[in-house]
Amino acid sequence: MVAIIDYGMGNLHSIHNMIKNIGEESIISNLPSEIELCDKIILPGVGAFDRAVNQLHQLQLWDFLNDQALIQKKPILGICLGMQLISKKSEEGNLNGFGWIEATTKKFTFDKNFLIPHMGWNSVIFNPNHSSQFPETQNLDTKKFYFVHSYFVECENKENILCSTKYGNEFTSGIIKDNIYGLQFHPEKSHFYGKHIFKDFINS
Amino acid sequence: MLQKRVLPVLLINNRDLVKSINFKDYNYLGDPINAVKIFNEMMSDELFIYDITKTSSDKPNFDYLAEIVSEAFMPIGYGGGVRSLTQMEKLFRIGIEKVSLNSALKNSLSLLNEASKDFGTQSIVCTIDVQFINDTYYSVIDNEFTELETFLNKLNQVEVGEIILNCIHKDGLMSGYDINLLRNVLNLTHVPITLCGGAGSLADIKEAALNGAHGIAAGSLFVYWGDEKGILINYPHHKINQLFDQQ
Question: For chain A, how many structural domains are there in total?
């Protein structure tokens, strides 16, 4: 059973439905008592960094998620803003992120040839050092996903880079450390490709 | 590299999927939810839904949209009866990625600014219904005509993430896009442009992309098949990808 964390930052039904579509079960919840019973956690999120941090604190989910990720070592997948929350801090806000991975969230800066936000379908290239991660996805001939974001995560250690994407320059579109995963794109809005991501995460 | 977006546009009237010619002569096609499911399987880049139902309340049908969105595993844009930030928030909450404004901009474009501030520019779309009369392009809102250049100059003063140019004079004809319009508009604004109206073939889509459209939208092309225009939901994902591979 997968827990999709509901902390009031964006719609979660498409994640729930895509997981159902691949024949797995999930719950949408903000109750530690319910989430505790699940063996996988998805931390989604669309919106502003500080608001997300505040919401998680208010719902008593902050310390709980720290425990789930770091002590219980439960597989946890941050999506979009959920990935950025895994970093230590963000240029978008003043509050601290979880800091589960040594990384900082930065704002894109481009000349006018590259619009911000980076929005649309783009390709993802996996780090060869993590060739065993997300195996079904990595086996696909084409790996493209739907992105919408103005901020990106920059890792301090290259080993935490799961995958990269080119937009202007190359940026990190996925991060990994032990049981912790973050993806900048939206698998739930990436039909065929996204289903492979959820299958892989659920089998991880 | 970011890929060009090729998106089917679906018109909904009273929970029916319909398709128009020149914004008139609506033809019944089938069930919208069924269409969305087929577009999932066909790996459509994105869908844009316009609800053209005329009701006394004239506001989005949130419950029905939620039903549609829960079946969609791709980004969904929506337009139709949106007039307030509260309505927009509801639409984003049910999983709509982009909300389009049109009628609400009749007297003022300020709602675009407020919406961009609250929800992020990337989620706010201005759909311009374009009419071409006597060599002049007009933006048409509720039968009120404004010269397109004048409208775009005003639009450049506010925050908006995308413009959908919906060509009334090309709608449903399947005779090709108005590329001249696209070129004109690209010279007048830096906002990403999605062109809609007139696509009759994948070659038309390629032409619009080569001429600078960020998004290329089509209705008839993805719901009709063959010279007789039989109703058949289609989205040739591989052929569409190939269009851009050759670029």
Answer: 1
Which chain A residues are within 8 Å of B120, Cβ to Cβ?
117, 150
CATH, residue A9: 3.40.50.880
- List the domain range (segments joined by +) for residue A63: 2-203
Q: Which residue of A has its CA nearest to B7?
A: A120
Which residue ranges form the domains of chain B, and what is each CATH number?
A: 5-245 (3.20.20.70)
Nearest C-alpha neighbor of B73 from the set A52, A196, A15, A54: A15
Contact B73 A188 (CB under 8 A): yes
pLDDT band, very low/low/confident/very high, at A47 (cuts 50, 70, 90) = confident
Q: Which segments of B69-143 are extended strands (E)?
A: 76-79, 98-101, 124-133, 136-141
By C-alpha distance, which of B149, B115, B112 is closest to B130? B149
* Partner-chain contact B2 A194, CB within 8 Å: no
Is position A118 annotated as part of the catalytic site?
no
ipTM confidence score:
0.82
Q: Quick check: B246 pLDDT over 60?
A: no
